[in-house]
Amino acid sequence: MSLFEQKVSELHERLHKKEISVTDLVDESYKRIGQVEDKVKAFLTLDEENARNQAKRLDDQLVKGENEGALFGMPIGVKDNIVTKNLRTTCASKILENFDPIYDATVVQKLQKAETVTIGKLNMDEFAMGSSNENSAFQATRNPWNTEYVPGGSSGGSAASVASGEVLFSLGSDTGGSIRQPAAYCGVVGLKPTYGRVSRFGLVAFASSLDQIGPVTRTVEDNAYLLEAISGVDPMDSTSANVDVPNFVNSLTGDVRGLKIAVPKEYLGEGVGEEARNSVLEALKVLEGLGAQWEEVSLPHSKYALAAYYLLSSSEASANLSRFDGVRYGHRTDNAETLIEMYKQTRAEGFGDEVKRRIMLGTFSLSSGYYDAYYKKAQKVRTLIKKDFEDVFEKYDVIVGPTTPTPAFKIGEKVDDPLTMYANDILTIPVNLAGVPGISVPCGFAANGLPLGLQMIGKHFDESTIYRAAHAFEQATDFHKQFPKL
Amino acid sequence: MSRISMEQVKHVAHLARLAITEEEAKQFQHQLDQMISFAEQLNELDTDQVNPTSHVLDMKNVMREDVAKPGLPVEEVVKNAPDSKEGYIRVPSIIE
């Protein structure tokens, strides 16, 4: 049995009792990577020498009986759009192929404080734009449950590395579903925190008003531990919120009696597959059995979320990605005489097709004469979508639905059709537009053997309630106890 | 008939500082047209009385004390620059 089939709290106890060492945990990671990485292709960069040295240092601390925190010695993977000092960070883009960051993201500093061990950097869709990891400039990560299928995206490496047991847990980022969708496809737990809960300092920006870093784990309890470690206001990110960070693990009481669940009819309607719908209805029975109540509600503007999201996120991306110009870092073309040609040619050579497409759409929506009709219109629709959630949360504690309309699709199946690809995200995107937290927990398997995810959405800064509900559901089912055979 | 002309596509690519081939311009014309017609479903909604949302949390003007602090060392800052000399970043000439 893999050590990583145990929870953080169990491993912590065993470290404390000296039954295992941090070196054992780090060995477990690299051993598993040696066995399965050929098939999974989750990592872009490994940091083995540093990780092993750090493990030795932590083991020395352990011998001295120095007080260790909950995450002490736990091996973690980090998505490759989160900067790590002196550890290559590429955003899975050719334009940053050799980028060597000169500082650590706030979440990475927090991990160091918690004394986790970084195993390596995880693959993603280029600049987090995509739902399958096929947009990585370097490799396509595979779904550990069936390597002919995508792991989801953009945090595909984050989900696949955890599902395949290469790391105990990982960090991803979520702009329109990029943590929850791959978590659902790979049968693990992924949370997008409330906008502002976690500092974005050092997260390479895609769409600044939507991006959040969040944890990908095997269990809800591990997820709660990791979120607590990375949360909190940060002077380096003026959009991080000055709110208390609760002890999320304390909220995992197993008690959901009287919990009021809203099930939006739009999340079980048109475009949502039979298997996803049925798995949610089964999950609702489980929650009812535990004493929760559910009713059907409406989020009437759901169908407009996808269009609003693509205009807003692409507009923000076109501004954010203007920093990649061949001047201060990253690729610079050899084929230009003038400065402006240097910019244009550098960007043409460095960016992939999907990134270019979104820069074009964003630049168009922000350009003179189109701003009001597209960008501003989308911002107004965002207000309506946010209001939909506020109305439902006046009467209910949690919104529940599928994370994705279908299980994972085959590699290559949707790569030529942007709009079909984007439709994977119809159930996760509204959550980012409203800024509320959302979690995906495993809730079954499709006929083809691939996992399905249950999405639970909470009020602003109320991750505790969705953790409580997700944990109660998880403990009443055994989907999280199944592991892919690689 | 595309609602975006080839001239517009090339203008947007110029604004975005992206060199594109004739072939790519045609492809972008088609894809932008698709995405924009998809986005036009938003016109079904009457939003005259709706304020735009640019940020979901109720916060504004986040201030900090105006205290001088050391920045990053110059040699670190230029470390990733494709072309630098003596602490400066070099680019093709800007003025003719």
From TrEMBL, chain A:
Domain Amidase: 24-466
Top-level enzyme category: ligase
Coiled coil feature spans: 41-68
InterPro entries from the UniProt entry: Amidase (IPR000120), Amidase_CS (IPR020556), Amidase_dom (IPR023631), AS_sf (IPR036928), GatA (IPR004412)
An annotated Gene Ontology molecular function: glutaminyl-tRNA synthase (glutamine-hydrolyzing) activity
KW Plastid (keyword) present: no
Cited Pfam families: Amidase (PF01425)
Annotated GO biological process: translation
Keyword Nucleus on entry: no
Keywords, alphabetical: ATP-binding, Coiled coil, Ligase, Nucleotide-binding, Protein biosynthesis
Active site: 79, 154, 178
EC number: 6.3.5.7
Catalytic activity annotation: L-glutamyl-tRNA(Gln) + L-glutamine + ATP + H2O = L-glutaminyl-tRNA(Gln) + L-glutamate + ADP + phosphate + H(+)
SUPFAM superfamilies per record: Amidase signature (AS) enzymes (SSF75304)
Matches recorded under PANTHER family: GLUTAMYL-TRNA(GLN) AMIDOTRANSFERASE SUBUNIT A, TRANSAMIDASE
Alphabetized NCBIfam families for the sequence: gatA (TIGR00132)
Role played: Allows the formation of correctly charged Gln-tRNA(Gln) through the transamidation of misacylated Glu-tRNA(Gln) in organisms which lack glutaminyl-tRNA synthetase. The reaction takes place in the presence of glutamine and ATP through an activated gamma-phospho-Glu-tRNA(Gln).
Family listed: Belongs to the amidase family. GatA subfamily.
Protein name (database record): Glutamyl-tRNA(Gln) amidotransferase subunit A
Source species: Peribacillus castrilensis
Automatic annotation (TrEMBL), chain B:
UniProt key word Protein biosynthesis: yes
Annotated GO MF terms: ATP binding; glutaminyl-tRNA synthase (glutamine-hydrolyzing) activity; transferase activity
Any single biological process term in GO: glutaminyl-tRNAGln biosynthesis via transamidation
Keywords in alphabetical order: ATP-binding, Ligase, Nucleotide-binding, Protein biosynthesis, Transferase
Catalytic reaction equation(s): L-glutamyl-tRNA(Gln) + L-glutamine + ATP + H2O = L-glutaminyl-tRNA(Gln) + L-glutamate + ADP + phosphate + H(+); L-aspartyl-tRNA(Asn) + L-glutamine + ATP + H2O = L-asparaginyl-tRNA(Asn) + L-glutamate + ADP + phosphate + 2 H(+)
UniProt enzyme class: ligase
Top-level lineage group: Bacteria
Entries under InterPro entries matching the protein: Asp/Glu-ADT_sf_sub_c, GatC
Family membership noted in the UniProt record: Belongs to the GatC family.
PANTHER family in the record: GLUTAMYL-TRNA(GLN) AMIDOTRANSFERASE SUBUNIT C, MITOCHONDRIAL
Subunit structure: Heterotrimer of A, B and C subunits.
Protein name per the record: Aspartyl/glutamyl-tRNA(Asn/Gln) amidotransferase subunit C
Species, as recorded: Peribacillus simplex
Gene assigned in the entry: gatC
